[in-house]
Amino acid sequence: MAGTTQTRQGDATRNRLVKAAERLFAAQGVDAVSVRAVNAAAGQGPAAVHYHFGSREGLLAAVLLDLGADVSRRIGANVDSLAAATEPPTVCEVVRALTDPYLDLLLKQRTRGIRWVKIVVQVSREGRPAVTSTGQEELSIRLREQVCRALPATAAERVDRLWPIAVMSFLQSISRVDDWAAGGTRLTEAELVEYYEDLVRFVTGGAERMLS
């Protein structure tokens, strides 16, 4: 019983640290937030982050995976479906394979989802250990393979160079969805979906134009 209680307490502490880091990283920037600040925001002692996560990068990886594990799993399943199809996908289908799970996340957890995307925007192109440990780089490679199938006349090197621009355009835009709402009010769920559909059309058109 004592072991079970300690495990629960440890899980609760880890959860508080992850959520505190998520809030601070999104608001202030990943590299601007100290481990000390995360510990304090979570109401923990000065050694809590290192005890539970081993390092700052370990904490960042936990933040990325907390909401991101399910997003990545769903993107992976979408990519598997595209890869298994005999016919090559359209560019729009590849874009949606990536972006639909983000919409689902924001529909379920709007506030935390937007925070998480803001963190992803900060670190996704840095190649830092926390990102590598989440498996995102492998998933990105698999997704680009489907872009190449959708655009067989385009050199793979060009896809590698330009596809990330389309991805980052989507991520940056979806992370600011409520910041850009008219009158400073938060979009309704219907308006969020409409914004997302417009964004998908924009990203798809841009990708087709850049890569064709």
Structure, described:
With 212 residues, this protein is mostly helical. The chain folds into two domains: 1-54, Arc Repressor Mutant, subunit A, CATH 1.10.10; 67-211, Tetracycline Repressor, domain 2 (Orthogonal Bundle), CATH 1.10.357. It has ten helices and no strands. It has helices at 2-28, 35-41, 48-53, 56-84, 91-108, 110-123, 129-133, 136-150, 156-175, 189-211. α5 packs across α6, α5 packs antiparallel against α8 and α6 runs antiparallel to α9. It is globular, with a radius of gyration of 19 Å.
Question: Can I get a quick summary?
Answer:
Helices cover 77% and strands 0% of the residues. It contains ten helices and no strands.
Give the arrangement of secondary structure elements.
Layout: H1 2-28, H2 35-41, H3 48-53, H4 56-84, H5 91-108, H6 110-123, H7 129-133, H8 136-150, H9 156-175, H10 189-211
Helix pairs in contact: 1-2, 1-4, 1-6, 4-5, 4-6, 4-8, 5-6, 5-8, 5-10, 6-9, 8-9, 9-10
InterPro entries: Homeodomain-like_sf, HTH-type_TetR-like_transc_reg, HTH_TetR, PsrA_TetR_C
Protein name: TetR/AcrR family transcriptional regulator
DNA-binding region: 34-53
